[in-house]
Amino acid sequence: xALSTTSNIxxxxxxxxxLATTASLRTQFxxxxxxxxxxxxxLNTSGAQGAQGAAGAQGPQGAQxxxxxxxxxGAQGAAGxxxxxxxxxxxxxxxxxxxxxxYMGPDPPASPDVGQLWMHTDTGIWMLYWYAPWGDWxxxx
Length: 141
Hints:
- The protein is built from one helix and four strands.
- It starts with 21 loop residues before the first helix and ends with a strand.
- The protein is α+β, with helices and mostly antiparallel strands.
């Protein structure tokens, strides 16, 4: 659509001053409004849309972001369900010769030698069999 560069608004028509009338103001305003609407329609009218242009080149890769926060700790695993095995047999008595005989178990040995060590496996306490007429175990460590 071609746009006209000539306006129908009459600059000599009195709009201001002592010769201006309400009719002259109304006429000029109506003409202005009609031309403005035609001009706006012409400028807003577009033809058929053209083909889409080619995609631009890909930009450079951005900087790596900061590391995220550490996640929560996992759940605790199940406790073992195994049972302890039976206590092994008591070893043979020592040969003497200054060697120390050590026994480990929840109860003291039945026939301890004087100077024999016993570790109470339930408490972890070391006991020493001391010579006494009645027999006696004393804390060693």
